[in-house]
Amino acid sequence: MPHPIFPFTPQTKQLLSKKLVAALSNPAVGDQIVNIPYLRGQSPRPGRRFEAYTRAMAFDELRKDYSGVPLVEGQCASDPAVQFQHWFDGAMRAKVLLPNAMTLATVDTDGFPQARIVLLKELDDEGFVFFTNYQSRKGDELAANNKASLMFWWEMQARQVRILGEIHKVSEAESDAYFASRPRESNLAAMASDQSRPLESREALEARMRSMDTGGELQRPANWGGYRLVPSSYEFWQGRPDRTHDRLEYRQGEGGSWEATRLYP
Ligand SMILES: Cc1cc2nc3c(=O)[nH]c(=O)nc-3n(C[C@H](O)[C@H](O)[C@H](O)COP(=O)(O)O)c2cc1C
User: Fold this and answer.
1) At 150, which helix (H) or strand (E)?
2) Is the pLDDT of residue 24 over 80?
3) How far is the CA of 117 from the centre of ligand 1 (A)?
4) C-alpha angle 106-111-115 in degrees, rounded to nearest 5
5) Residue 232 belongs to a domain
6) For burial by CB atoms within 10 Å, which of 60, 96, 112, 126 has the most?
7) Is 143 in the pocket of ligand 1 (CB under 6 A)?
8) How many domains does the chain fold into?
């Protein structure tokens, strides 16, 4: 039976995919899309077909059951940094695309969270290092409030890691060493970019890069370098069947030791 609110005119049926017609016949799905104006008795336009399909079907088709390896307290490292390394190695072995891509969330001066992806470039006993422009938006935000969050998502293992901590600039020597290891073009781009400031055109950026390339060794600009997030808490999330995901939160106690607590999914 077609969904009662949705009139299937012959023209509509012709334009909509069989899958979508089937979806619309399901009241649960049909209800979600009756408010799309052109589906309220109007003729759908071919160009909008994808939109209807996306809204009605794609989210439902994306539903996935996770069958990850259980995250069990007794089998996890007592130090979350070790547990992180274990999961990171797993993502590397699985050849995840950019396993070191992490979402960095900061808070701006109006209290809005601001998130963007940066790449983890060093991981040591102290914390998680990434490189950027110190005068970018994130740089300004971290200068005002150095509390931040990192988030990793490794799709193939259905694993998410959330890390909170304070962020500090790495030493000049550390930034110099990393700058020296980068491809020349990347460094020219770092030198030429007033990251997060308005740019009149792409050509202007390219001209600036050319003007900075004097042929000799490139010096790291003072406004470009590394930040290290020193973790104060970690949450490991493992996707499990039927939305019964495993979550373990590690918090540091007085003496510096870590305590893990299981959270409801
Ligand atoms: C996969 C990926 C990796 C990125 N890595 C970095 C990075 O390591 N450092 C960086 O400054 N920006 C990186 N970016 C760009 C940032 O997401 C962001 O656009 C830029 O840093 C400006 O952010 P801001 O305006 O919040 O300061 C990356 C973006 C993507 C999608």
Assistant:
1) strand 147-154
2) no
3) 5
4) 30
5) yes
6) 96
7) no
8) 2
